[in-house]
Amino acid sequence: MAERTVLAGNDKVTAAVLLSDQRGAASLEMTIVSLFMMLALLVPLADMAVAGFKFNSAYQALRDMGQRTQYSNPDATDATSISTWQSSLPTTVDGYTVSAAVKCGDAGAAAPCAGTTWPKYFLFSTSFTLSPMVLGSVLCSNCTVTYSQRFQ
């Protein structure tokens, strides 16, 4: 290294000297590798993290609605009781619009239920939107989350 610096004159390091001995190649490669890791690994990971957080938040809103309805069940055999119950529920929970329905039996027939149809359960659903940066073809743009809870 000392020879090349002396050959350049006045003991100065010049661009020609740096190019001739390939110093700085590792820093250039690190820049390229860092850019690749940011685009190919971290941005899709950020998309998945946002989707996971939104899904968990929406699912928790549905569970919160289920917790509230545990203590105020409608009469599943009476259509008037069901509509009164649905109108008494809050329309949004934690910023998510939640819809509630009463279902009967294993097939999930809509209420009102026959007196002996078991089980009876609530079905809650909500939706949220995603705008992924990279994983648009893999992730849903308008995602629907459902949650059911048995009450009889």
Indicate the overall shape.
Answer: rod-shaped
User: How far apart, in Å, are the first and last alpha carbons?
Assistant: 84 Å
Structural class: alpha+beta
Total number of beta strands: 6
Portion in beta strands: 15-25%
Q: Low-confidence runs (pLDDT<50, min 5 residues)?
A: none
Question: What characterizes the major β-sheet?
Answer: 4 strands, antiparallel
- Main sheet: strand order: 4-3-5-6
Helix percentage range: 40-55%
Count of helices? Answer: 4
Encode the helix/strand succession as letters. Answer: HHHHEEEEEE
Mean pLDDT across all residues, rounded? 83
Report the C-alpha radius of gyration, rounded.
Answer: 31 Å
Q: How are the SSEs ordered, and which strands pair?
A:
Layout: H1 2-8, H2 15-21, H3 25-69, H4 79-88, E1 92-93, E2 96-97, E3 99-104, E4 109-110, E5 120-129, E6 142-150
Antiparallel strand pairs: 1-2, 3-4, 3-5, 5-6
Report on this model:
It is a single chain. A 4-stranded antiparallel beta sheet has the order 4-3-5-6, covered by helices on one side. A two-stranded antiparallel ribbon has the order 1-2. It is α+β, with helices and mostly antiparallel strands and 152 residues long. It is rod-shaped and about 95 Å long. The longest helix has 45 residues, at 25-69. It has helices at 2-8, 15-21, 25-69, 79-88, and strands at residues 92-93, 96-97, 99-104, 109-110, 120-129, 142-150. The protein is built from 4 helices and 6 strands.
